[in-house]
Design brief:
467 residues, Purple Acid Phosphatase, chain A, domain 2, 2 domains, seven-stranded mixed β-sheet, six-stranded mixed β-sheet, 22 strands, 28% strand, globular, binds fe (ii) ion
Length: 467
């Protein structure tokens, strides 16, 4: 066999094997991949097939040499055609995947619109501190003018940057503030009411911007309902899976553009979902939803405590399940729970659910999540958490277990899940196959009224919980 053939044979087999291994190691090192593999059966199968391929290809090549060496002299034929085809596949597949996924998070598509995001921490008048946030594709240095009534304060960023968060601290309750960026269009928002007043907020989850199956028209209608002054919402929480593919900036561009009309005029806190963090998406999520200039008083950019007087929101980072529930987050959560007075409202929100009806979908049990239930539900019960809101399952459900009320509202535009085949023993109301809905929550001193509303603002179900 000519030397060039031997060299080609060796190079192709080695390159294919190395590329397969490179892809697998790279993918496994990415944040969130372990959860992805654990929960998503089809993706797990793809990874197993690629790993087997990487192991078997060199063995087949050695066999090829062995078979060739046993042939009568002069009839050695290397490489075999089948090895060439297998090696070519082993080169093409990981090259395509790496070529798509590795550069994707750095391929930004443009400036991101303004949002008014609640920060971890509370000002001296019992209101959450907030930030006017945005992102620019080129470094820029910006000026924010803001204030209430006749007063105004000017903040100038210290240096040019891509991420931007101009902090608004120590806000007064029930006060309308105006702000304008670089002397541009003036926007306004009103802070939540003072102590003893009714608190009214909206919760949605799983918009999946960028997905062809998502109903962004319905998401848009619900966002309009939430920002409609006639409905009187004071805060908005978005519980993750904001985008379909976290590593694809065009999905973030679409999401923030659609959200901004509501989230620039209403105090908003988004959470991290499993789709948001896919293959480098976590960085994009953090840059857009918790820029580095935002204050962090007790939690982190991924989990926060937000207080409105004596109503306490604990925002958790639970994506696929407990894979993202670090020891640091667990210690923080238990500490916050222990500090919150039992007579105050305590509300926990996360992307991943705890108790839920569902089904066996994609080789995974999408119901009564064993890990979140075993690790977190006992804490909720021990410290008297009142309400727990989540998404992740694309359905609507109310559940009660050991004096804790759970609501799942993963229906803010993402493709609905199939009808449930498993009914959680904790379920008290369920609606699957629903195209879209969000949660409307009204809190008084003693009562919490939880209402599911569709995009036309019709009430689907309402439950009042009395403390
Ligand atoms: Fe989702
Ligand atoms: Fe999810």
């Amino acid at each position: 066999m000519p030397a060039w053939k031997k060299f080609t044979w060796f190079t192709l087999v080695a390159a294919g094997t190395l590329l397969l291994l490179t892809f697998l190691i790279w993918a496994l090192c990415q944040y969130g991949t372990m959860g992805l593999l654990e929960v998503t059966g089809p993706i797990r199968i793809v990874f197993i097939v690629l790993a087997c391929y990487a192991a078997v290809l060199p063995l087949l090549a050695i066999m090829d040499v062995y078979i060739a060496s046993r042939r009568p002299s002069g009839k050695i034929r290397l490489p075999s055609k089948y090895i060439l085809v297998l090696a070519a596949i082993a080169i093409i597949i990981p090259s395509l995947l790496l070529g798509w996924l590795v550069p994707a998070p750095s391929q930004r598509t443009g400036d991101k619109a303004v949002q008014l995001l609640m920060a971890d921490g509370t000002g001296k008048y019992g209101m959450p501190d907030m930030a006017v946030t945005f992102w620019t594709i080129n470094p820029s240095q910006n000026t924010l003018k803001w204030g209430a009534g006749g007063t105004s304060t000017i903040i100038r960023e210290e240096k040019p940057s891509l991420q931007h968060a101009l902090m608004l601290r120590d806000l007064q309750p029930a006060t309308t503030y105006r702000y304008s960026l670089n002397d541009g269009k003036e926007l306004q928002f009103t802070t939540p009411p003072g102590k003893g007043q009714t608190l009214h907020f909206a919760v949605g989850s799983d918009t999946h911007f960028g997905a062809s199956t998502a109903r962004h028209d319905l998401t848009g209608k619900m966002l309009q309902q939430i920002s409609d002054p006639a409905h009187g919402y004071q805060m908005f929480f978005l519980l993750g899976d904001k985008v379909e593919l976290g590593f694809d900036d065009s999905h973030w561009q679409e999401a923030i553009q659609a959200l901004s009309a509501t989230t620039s005029t209403m105090p908003t806190r988004p959470l991290v979902g499993n789709h948001d963090t896919l293959f480098g998406g976590l960085n994009l999520d953090q840059e857009y939803m918790y820029p580095q200039q935002m204050d962090v008083k007790s939690g982190s950019s991924r989990w926060q405590r937000i207080d409105v007087n004596d109503v306490h929101f604990l925002m958790l980072d639970l994506e696929w399940g407990t894979q993202s529930y670090s020891a640091e987050q667990a210690a923080w959560l238990e500490k916050q729970l222990s500090l919150i007075p039992r007579e105050d409202w305590c509300i926990v929100m996360s992307h991943c659910f705890y108790y839920s009806s569902g089904g066996y979908w994609g080789l995974w049990d999408w119901y009564d999540e064993k890990d979140t239930i075993s690790e977190l539900a006992p804490l909720f019960e021990k410290y008297g958490v009142d309400l727990v809101f989540s998404g992740h399952n694309h359905l609507l459900e109310l559940l009660q277990k050991n004096n804790v009320t759970y609501a799942i509202c993963g229906a803010f535009g993402g493709q609905p899940d199939p009808e449930r085949s498993y009914v959680s023993p904790a379920s008290i109301w369920y609606q699957g196959g629903s195209p879209a809905a969000f949660l409307d929550v009204t809190l008084t001193a003693d009562n919490a009224t939880i209402t599911f509303r569709d995009p036309d603002y019709n009430q689907l179900k309402s439950l009042t919980v009395t403390r």
